[in-house]
Protein: Nicotinate-nucleotide--dimethylbenzimidazole phosphoribosyltransferase
Amino acid sequence: MASLANILRQIAEPDTQAAQKAAERLDSLVKPLGSLGRLEQLAIQLASIRGNQPLHFPSKEVLVMAADHGVWQEGVTPSPQVVTAIQAVNIVQGKAGVSVLARAAGAQVTLIDCGIIGPDIPGTLNHKIAQGTGNIATGPAMTREQAESLLIWSAERVIAKAESGLSLLAVGELGMANTTPAAAMVAVLTGAQPAQTVGLGANLSPDRLAHKISVVEKAIAVNQPDPSDALDVMAKVGGFELVAMAGAMIGAAAAGIPLVLDGFLSYASALAACQIAPALKPYLIPSHLSAEQGATLALEALGLTPYFDLNLRLGEGSGAALALPLIDAACAIHNEMATLAECQIEL
Ligand SMILES: O=C(O)c1ccc[n+]([C@@H]2O[C@H](COP(=O)([O-])O)[C@@H](O)[C@H]2O)c1
Ligand SMILES: Cc1cc2nc[nH]c2cc1C
Structure:
């Protein structure tokens, strides 16, 4: 296993010349200057990541990280814990929201079991760290060693996939109760109060919100995570799938491929990943604004503006999968539109 420092060293700055070339090409196309709005900025960002390679993403993966959470015991979610295992099966069998949306976008779905309670699940990639995390309301989610080795394992897997042809990665997650550790991570990493980062998750009854906030406050008080040490924050108040997503982000940047974010849980992971590796930021592509309370705060802390807001809060990578056609569209305008000159238009 490589060291984290070694992986971080592989993250290159995006290619400013390629970005400049793409910007010039977009300005020459048969349209009023800038009229394709943020699609143009997206094409420029993608070009800066692709460098000399054609602006095209033939091989896309939606990577779903899944695990269970000890804090489920605190009554912070209405979902039975076994839904994590059941829905993992649905995802790999092509029946879940993310499966359908990824299929429509021409992307493959991979589900990594980082710690789902129960036996190994056929069709998933098994990397169980434990049968769920520790309960963050009473102690750490995992050890620092577990967090670091999972982060590195996840980054290395993405690097290996990119070496065998993967050109674009979208992340997603699955884990009953995981909006609780994610809210704790976002609070600690941004300095916000838990009351600003805790939301209703997957339909928690609003009269249980105050309890969920108190669980996050307790998790922070009991574990005392160090806000300047994202690995400490993830180990103490995070979750296996949240660490694995952060690792995938680091791996994508190290491999020079774009990484599409999903919802609130991916924002929490991105905040941690960006603290560990600030150089990965230019590789991140937001998709949607999650409906979870705290989503705007987390995205603002990341300095990212989402591309769409459909009131989604499914997770699984569903919003990230929905952004893939937008990415193809940004490439297509850059590659296929005629120029003003070809059409004898002078502006
Ligand atoms: O993606 C989001 O923004 C999002 C917001 C709320 C809930 N979820 C999904 O719902 C589960 C967590 O919700 P909860 O209420 O059990 O903490 C987990 O499996 C997530 O994929 C996802
Ligand atoms: C059915 C179901 C599917 C999910 N997918 C992500 N979180 C979920 C929570 C539930 C309850």
